[in-house]
Every structure is written in structure tokens, then in C-alpha cells.
Amino acid sequence: MPRRIESYFIEGPAGKLEALLEEPEREEPGDGSPVEACVVCHPHPLFGGTMHNKVVYRIARGMRRLGAVVLRFNFRGVGASEGAHAGGAGEIEDARAALAFLRARYPELPYSLAGFSFGARVITKLGCLLESPPPERLIAVGFGTRRGSSDYLSTCAIPKYFIQSTIDEHGPKDELEAAFVHFAEPKQLQFIEAGDHFFAGALDELEAAVAAIRP
């Protein structure tokens, strides 16, 4: 039986948000019921980022391999989502609305947040604010070191996983390593040999790295 994919329009703070909800991809026998819920956020809206970005898709598939039900969505002003880009602060609220939608559907499940590039900064900022219950973990892929401070991560006690290309023009290896030293525990940093910020030539390795993360 094919995996179920459902399309939604979520009520967001600036209008409706276009979203896709996807069931887990189970590699072992079982009833296929999700064991976790995860929101995945896409890269910068002003530079072509959408929920259909190839890295975002691979992150989502990696999470589904772990048994997660995954919600991808377009930030305000992207695709069929209403509103206009709001400089990051509004997009954090979009992610909050997407998470509220997902948790209302699966209130009994633990949840995580994942994101790529701009989306990685959105989910870490949001995730570090959330309580009662907090996220199981935050998965930041292609975390940028050149757009804003990451000081907030020095006091964030949520488990944090950073996955980065060894060649990343927006988050160079040496810059992220230097910043990572100051991030609060628990944390993990993994580099993948790839050609650029978008994990050129290493998307399979990226997906496998996400699928290997256990809460």
C-alpha cells in the first residue's frame, strides 16, 4: 500500500500556509503507526527556498525512516502560502503555527523540529523557546554562521544535532566549529563530505545521517 501524503492549508498568523503531511516509511515490520511527529522547515524564501527543496525532502524522508509523521510547509509568501516575507520573526511564528497543527493531530506523540539553512535557524530559535513539553530534539542542517547571532544556543538545553557539508559557503566548517564550542549541551555536530551548501553529491549520506539520529 502506498504511503499516504495529505495536502493542507494551515491557519497561520499572516494567512493560510500550504503544507504536506506525510506518513512514516517503515523499514521493519509493524503496523506503520508513527512514533514521533516532526516539522521540517525550508531555506530562505527570498532565495528560492520552498518545502520542495531537495535537501528538505531528504531530511523529511530520513525522519520518516525513523517512524516519524512529517509536516513540511511553505513559509508565508512562498508557493500558495499567503502573506509576505517577514525577516525571520514572522517565519518563526509560521513554524509555531505548523507545529500547533501537527501536535493537535498527534497530541500523544513526542515531537521534533528540523530545518535546512534559513529553516535551521528558524527551528533552533523556536525550539529553544518551547516548553511543556519541549521538543525531543532539534535537527539543524546547513546552519548558517553569517546571518545573525547564535548566542541563544549557548543557553538552550534541548538536544541539538547539527549536520553540515564540509564545503558550505553559508556556514564554513571552521566558523561552525568555533561557534559550536559555545553551544549548550546536549549537542552533536556531524560533517558530511559534499560539494556545497546543498550537499551536492552527498544527498544519500545526508538522508542516512538524519535517519541515524535517535532521540
Describe the structure.
The protein is an alpha/beta fold. The chain has one domain: Rossmann fold (3-Layer(aba) Sandwich), CATH 3.40.50. It has helices at 54-65, 89-105, 118-127, 173-180, 203-211; strands spanning 5-12, 15-22, 36-41, 68-73, 111-116, 138-141, 160-165, 187-192. Strands 1-2-4-3-5-6-7-8 form an eight-stranded mixed beta sheet, sandwiched between helices. Helix 2 (89-105) crosses helix 3 (118-127). The model has no long low-confidence stretch (mean pLDDT 95).
| Strand order within the widest beta sheet | 1-2-4-3-5-6-7-8
Mind telling me the CATH superfamily name?
Alpha/Beta hydrolase fold, catalytic domain
Question: Which CATH architecture?
Answer: 3-Layer(aba) Sandwich
- Content of β-strand: 15-25%
Number of strands: 8
What is the C-alpha radius of gyration, as a whole number of Å? 16 Å
CATH class: Alpha Beta
- Helix percent reads 25-40%
- In sequence order, what are the helices and strands, one letter per element? EEEHEHEHEEHEH
What's the overall average pLDDT, rounded? 95
How many individual domains?
1
Total of DSSP H or I helical runs spanning 4+ residues: 5
* Major sheet size, sense and barrel closure: 8 strands, mixed
Calculate the terminal CA-CA distance, rounded to whole Å: 28 Å
Uncertain spans: none
The name CATH uses for the topology is: Rossmann fold
The structure class reads alpha/beta
Give the overall silhouette: globular
